[in-house]
Each structure stands twice: as C-alpha cells, then as structure tokens.
Design goal:
single chain, about 270 residues, alpha+beta, Helix Hairpins, HSP40/DNAj peptide-binding domain, 3 domains, four-stranded mixed β-sheet, 7 helices, rod-shaped
Amino acid sequence: MSAANHYAVLGVSEDAPLAELIAAYRALAPKCHPNSTDYVPESFPVTHLTQQQYWQALGEAMEVLMEHPADPNGNRWYIHSPPTVQQFVLVVTLEDIFAGTTKTLTYYRMRQIEGRSHSMKETLDVPINQYMRHGMWITIRGAGHETELGNSDVMVQLCQTPHPIFTVSGNDLICRKAVPLSIALFGGYVKVQTIDLKTISIFVPPNEVSHQFLFEGEGLPAPEGRGTMQVNIQITIPKVPAHLQDDARRIIREIESYDWERALEEQ
C-alpha cells in the first residue's frame, strides 16, 4: 500500500501532524476492530474494504506513518514503544558531593507545539545529595521528549572529576602525605587537611617506611555516618647537592653498616 493510501485509510491529508494521525486512528480503530459489531463501510474514509481488511489496513498505515510521519524536523516516532529515555552525563566535583548542591543541566528535547514537534533548549536543576557517588544514575520523570504518547524520562549519570588530594573508596577518602626523610628517620609531626578543610596533626614514629593513619568520621557522609579518611605516608627522598654528596654517602654507609646487635650487647 502506498503512503497516499495509508493517509486515505486514516482519512487525513498527507501533511497531517502526528496528533491528527493518532486522533484518526483512535477514532476508527474501535469501529473496525474484529470484535466490533458497529462496522458500517460507508462511514469510513475508504468504503470498499471489509471489516477485517480495514483493521489490517489501519494497523499497517499507523506502523508505516509512525515511522515516517510528516514532521519537518525529521523526527521518528513509534506508536508501539514508549518515548525514548534521554541520557546525559553531569560533571561534579568531590566537594559538590560532600556538601550537596544543585547543578544545572542544559539540553535539548522535543516539544509538541500545535501538533508538531520542535527541538527546544531546556534547563533542568538536578539536586545532588551527600549520599550520591560517581557513576550513579539520577532519573527525572517526564523531563524528556514530549509526545502525544507521553513524556520520556531524563537519566543523568554523575561523573566526578579527579580530586587533587583524595581518591574515593565507597564512603572512605584516601590520600597520600609526603613526609620528609628526616621525619621518616627520626620521627616528627606532619599536617593533613580534611575534605571539610580542617587541619589534623599526625605524629609519624621514627623509622616508619610504610604506615597508614585512619581517621574515623572524616570521610564522605552516608546514612550510617561518615566514612573514614585514610592517610598513607610517602617518604620524600631529597636531592643531595653536589658539595654534600661525599659526606652524605659516608654517613649513610656508616648508618647502614652499624652493628646494632653488638651495640646492644655492650650496653
């Protein structure tokens, strides 16, 4: 059946908008349904078809025209499928998640105006709460494409930008703290900053090569309470100036060769 015949079966013009196609289908379909007893050929746009033939022709017309409607924007609609969900990525910072905020999403969606679809720029305020994490999806019902069949949803996936200090593991925050060689050898204090900008002093014991410090309640918020901040120390090896290299090499070798067992026995 040609496109012209499809429009004729529905009783609409070839430039009919989507709304008119659907309205015509909904008006004719109950009357020619195989279970209907109200079929009167003369009351239909095409009068030479039997009830079964009209029912089949009506279904074929809608299937074809819904895939290729008279839409100047070139959009395709499918009557047997729900409106397509729109998916976007929303970039947030770790501070956004920690404090909670609202981010504005700018996007385009199809709107129905006088029976025709138009692509329009929209803005959407997306609430970010403290329990959300990188990769999570947020669904905003009915904020997507608008059609006579209903509005689609918008799904937004959170993408957290890399943080210069912290990495995230669940509700825990992990960071590295550079420790000078002198403190690593002889002990001393270093300072670290939490996600909410508090300063904590940590005492690093002497001769600590690898050590972790855990601070409960300094991680990300969660329903059961804030997570943990884990601080991993990282020893910084200084660059030795040329004029000190001989002395530094001699001292280090003396330390490495020192007989601690003998020294303890002599005490």
